[in-house]
């Protein structure tokens, strides 16, 4: 049995009789998920000698603090990365943000990522949207304990697209993402380069998340079981980890790489002067042709 399940059960049963009734009423699918915690543990994957990476990076997840609101800094969990091998553009930090660095890969690259779990709890990282073999996709059964290292090795098979990396341990995925563990993955390829889309400072990742803060600027997660099961809304919407995100722009075309990293909220995005939004891509990558829309709906993903 994993540590995470022990603590969450303990916390749960420490509640009142009403809590126990809620447990009895837990739907079968949720109980089935709970039981996944009984799966035998797999030792953390190590680097293989016959894999020769084009890109290698150390990815660390650990507790941290960051100033989000005026006053007291907020305790978060955060990804930090260091490039061991490969092009410098692989990593882009988002200054002053709890979000992990933007990872930029090229289709066809051989990639090694050494995940160091320096949280005080088990975790594993999942590459949401990437086509990778199951044993390096961060399924909950590969969760590692605090202090352990898991080595991912895969070739980038995706076409140009935006994806997301986030923890995927059993039971605590949403909680860890909510506390800051998430980041964007951008994949580039030849097809995309031929389009000569806006790049450099004109290509802007925009990660939207809503969060709930208490009086001392700390994140509040899941006030009750219903929040935990259904997701919940925050009272502040953060863009790239900032509460009042503002971007000074030139009057020219920009490419916004928009990601909804909220637990439940769906956004309707539009320009306030009613200019159309030109959509050039979705989850899987670029569209056949751009489409103009009055607004865009974006669900968490
Ligand atoms: Cu995911």
Describe the structure.
The protein has 301 residues and is of the alpha+beta class. The chain folds into 3 domains: 3-38, no CATH class; 55-193, Cupredoxins -  blue copper proteins (Immunoglobulin-like, Sandwich); 200-298, Sandwich (Immunoglobulin-like). Helices cover 15% and strands 34% of the residues. It is built from 6 helices and 16 strands. The chain has a 5-stranded mixed β-sheet. Strands 2-1-5-7 form a 4-stranded mixed β-sheet, with no helix packed on it. The protein has a 3-stranded mixed β-sheet with strand order 11-10-12, with no helix packed on it. The two termini are 29 Å apart. The model is unreliable at 1-27 (pLDDT under 50). It binds copper (II) ion (CU). Copper (II) ion is lined by residues 126, 128, 166.
Percent of residues in helical segments?
A: 10-25%
The distinct bound ligands, ions and cofactors come out as:
copper (II) ion
Which regions have little confidence, pLDDT < 50, spanning 5+ residues? 1-27
CATH class of the largest domain: Mainly Beta
How many DSSP-defined strands?
A: 16
CATH architecture of the largest domain: Sandwich
Shape: globular
Q: Please state the average pLDDT score.
A: 88
**C-alpha-based Rg, rounded:** 20 Å
In short:
With 301 residues, the chain is an alpha+beta fold. The protein has helices at residues 3-13, 17-24, 28-35, 173-178, 190-194, 225-230; strands at 55-66, 74-85, 91-92, 102-106, 110-117, 125-128, 149-155, 161-167, 183-188, 203-211, 236-239, 255-260, 267-269, 277-282, 285-293, 296-298. It has 6 helices and 16 strands.
């Amino acid at each position: 049995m994993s540590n995470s399940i022990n603590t969450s059960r303990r916390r749960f049963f420490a509640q009142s009789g009403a809590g126990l009734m809620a447990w009895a009423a837990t739907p079968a699918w949720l109980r089935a998920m709970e039981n996944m915690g009984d799966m035998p543990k797999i030792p953390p994957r190590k680097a293989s000698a016959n894999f020769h990476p084009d890109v290698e990076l150390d990815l660390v997840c650990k507790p941290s603090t960051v100033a989000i609101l005026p006053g007291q800094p907020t305790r978060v969990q955060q990804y930090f990365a260091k490039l061991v091998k490969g092009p410098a553009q692989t990593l882009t930090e988002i200054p002053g943000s709890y979000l992990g660095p933007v990872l930029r890969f090229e289709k066809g690259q051989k990639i090694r990522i050494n995940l160091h779990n320096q949280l005080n709890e088990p975790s594993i990282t999942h590459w949401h949207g990437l086509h990778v073999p199951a044993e390096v996709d961060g399924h909950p059964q590969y969760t590692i304990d605090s202090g352990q290292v898991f080595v991912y090795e895969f070739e980038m098979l995706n076409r140009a697209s935006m994806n997301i990396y986030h923890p995927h341990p059993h039971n605590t995925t949403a909680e860890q993402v909510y506390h800051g563990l998430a980041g964007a993955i951008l994949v580039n390829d030849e097809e995309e380069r031929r389009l000569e889309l806006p790049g450099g400072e004109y290509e802007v990742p925009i990660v939207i998340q809503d969060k709930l803060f208490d009086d001392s600027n700390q994140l509040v997660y899941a006030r009750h079981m219903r929040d935990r099961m259904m997701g919940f809304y925050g009272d502040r919407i953060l863009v790239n980890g900032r509460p009042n995100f503002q971007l000074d722009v030139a009057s020219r075309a920009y490419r916004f790489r928009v990601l909804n990293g909220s637990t439940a909220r769906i956004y309707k995005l539009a320009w306030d002067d009613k200019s159309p939004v030109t959509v050039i891509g979705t989850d899987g990558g670029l569209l056949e042709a751009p489409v103009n829309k009055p607004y865009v709906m974006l669900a968490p993903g």
